[in-house]
Write a structure and sequence with these properties.
- It is a single chain.
- Helix content is about 75%, strand content about 0%.
- By secondary structure, it is mainly α.
- The chain has one domain.
- α5 packs antiparallel against α10 and α11 runs parallel beside α17.
- The chain is globular.
- It is a multi-pass membrane protein.
- Pfam families: Proton_antipo_M (PF00361).
- This is Hydrogenase, membrane subunit 1-like protein (EchA-like).
């Protein structure tokens, strides 16, 4: 079925290039995305919820962890396509984009999703590297879609930094393959995640450590961890908002997934949690940097981008803690995927109606577009971990895990998160509620983007309630076990 899924997305990418009518481009893209996403759910959800067993081959790895990631990719992909139908249609009508731009946009959107799915579903580390680089190549042109000077600069910065990082990651993969060869493996087994995990104790410590340094720094650039983060605010703010949602909502998690897979292999090799030092340091650095930068933001899309750096830092920090921290990290990955993508969808609605991303130029959103305003403020409260958000559950869990081992780091993070919450709400509340003049002729009606955002909030709060129960906790623990042991 995996190859059918990839064929559907590849056909979708090629088909839109042959369609003459702009509306048909959007409708065909939506239909193909729904079919492709549905097939991913049919493959992944039975494994994720334990109805069928995990399995692997030389090319494919389908366990609960990879199934979770594939499901998240599929959801955000379909959601972004639904939002894109309205978003790109609106910009086409206003003359911002032409028909060729729409073709390029949807063609690359499908390739982007395809690359992310291959990254999380492959068992071959070289293929994972190729797919992760594929996400960069396919999305670079989406960042520069508007062909403005700032968009093109953001696209160049993105491809240079991320391609350099991915190249370092390749060195790490080759080093692990070399270490596996010295350990007695040969052929395809040198680059299979399952083989690496099963034979990890045989890999020499020095090679494993050096490989992980390259892997963490290289793929960490793609995650947007400080100080490798500099591409992220520009790319997220200049890309079309549905693409920003894919970036923040799932791409960063996909890159972090790759780091996690290799980290657990290296920890198995060293018989210790040596990698935790990297997770703790870069996690805290990313959170503190985000707090400082958030105080000086004047662009609401850049604000959301720095928020993504913060949350990748939180997930990374949690991975450096005890097994309880690993549970918190998975909960946070899920919560952040739904929350941040819906916030970028909301930011897109604001941008379509106010024609600017400058905070001071946007006022009275509630008066003119109350549906967007209500959904956006609920999403903002969720992203700063106000209960009953799933992010509250994950952050509370990671603080419990951190206080006993690293109380000073826990305090630094708590202060940073308080600063971030203040900075974000200081910008957003005036945008939504200040100086608004009610004008019935300008009021915006409920649309498909609002439906997507509402569904995401329902899933977010339902997940938060479920994960606090015994069955929900067992579900997360099962994912963590598969992540650590890979079909052992």
């Amino acid at each position: 079925m995996i190859f059918i899924i990839l064929a559907v997305l590849l056909c979708a990418s090629l088909a839109v290039l042959l369609i003459a009518n702009e509306k048909n481009i959007r409708m065909v893209s939506l239909a193909m995305a729904v079919v492709g996403g549905g097939l991913v759910f049919a493959l992944a959800l039975p494994v994720l919820f334990g109805f069928t067993s995990s399995w692997s081959s030389q090319l494919v790895l389908v366990d609960r962890f990879s199934s979770l990631m594939a499901s998240l990719v599929a959801f955000v992909y379909v959601a972004a396509t639904i939002v894109s139908v309205r978003y790109i249609g609106h910009e086409y009508k206003e003359g911002i984009l032409n028909r060729d731009d729409a073709r390029l946009y949807f063609s690359l959107l499908h390739l982007f999703a395809l690359s992310m799915l291959v990254t999380v579903l492959t068992n071959n580390t070289l293929l994972m590297w190729i797919a992760l680089e594929g996400t960069t190549l396919s999305s670079t042109f989406l960042v520069g879609l508007y062909r403005k000077k700032t968009s093109v600069e953001a696209a160049w910065k993105y491809i240079i930094i991320c391609t350099t990082g991915i190249s370092l990651g390749l060195i790490g993969i080759l080093l692990l393959g070399y270490g596996s060869r010295l350990a007695g493996l040969s052929g395809a087994d040198l680059f299979l995640l399952t083989s690496l995990q099963n034979n990890a104790p045989l890999i020499q410590d020095g090679i494993a450590k050096l490989a992980f340094v390259f892997l963490f720094v290289g793929f960490g650039a793609k995650v947007g961890l400080a100080p490798m983060h500099t591409w992220l605010p520009d790319a997220h703010s200049k890309a079309p908002s549905p693409i920003s949602a894919l970036f923040s909502g799932i791409l960063l998690n996909v890159a972090l997934y790759a780091i996690m897979r290799f980290a657990f292999v290296v920890n198995g090799s060293l018989q210790s949690d040596w990698t935790s030092h990297f997770f703790l340091f870069f996690g805290v650095a990313s959170i503190v940097l985000s707090a400082l930068m958030m105080l000086v933001q004047t662009n609401y899309k850049r604000m959301l981008a720095y928020s993504s750096i913060e949350h990748m830092g939180l997930i990374t920090f949690a991975l450096g803690l005890s097994p309880l921290g690993a549970i918190a990290s998975v909960i946070h990955m899920i919560g952040h995927t739904f929350t941040k993508s819906m916030l970028f969808f909301g930011a897109g609605e604001i941008l379509l109606n106010w024609k600017t991303t400058t905070v001071e130029k946007v006022r009275g959103v509630f008066a003119e577009d109350r549906y967007t305003a209500i959904l956006f403020i609920v999403g903002m409260l969720a992203i700063v971990a106000m209960p009953p958000s799933a992010l509250f559950v994950s952050e509370y869990t990671m603080f419990v895990a951190a206080l006993s081992k690293y109380p000073v780091l826990a305090l630094i993070i708590l202060v940073s998160l308080s600063v971030i919450a203040y900075a974000m709400l200081r910008l957003i509340v005036p945008m939504l509620f200040f100086n608004g003049k009610s004008d019935e002729t300008k009021k915006h009606k409920w649309n498909s983007t609002h439906s997507v955002m509402c569904l995401q909030l329902i899933i977010l709060f339902s997940f938060a309630a479920w994960v606090t129960t015994a069955s929900g906790l067992n579900f997360i623990q099962g994912i963590v076990v598969d992540a650590v042991y890979i079909l052992k």
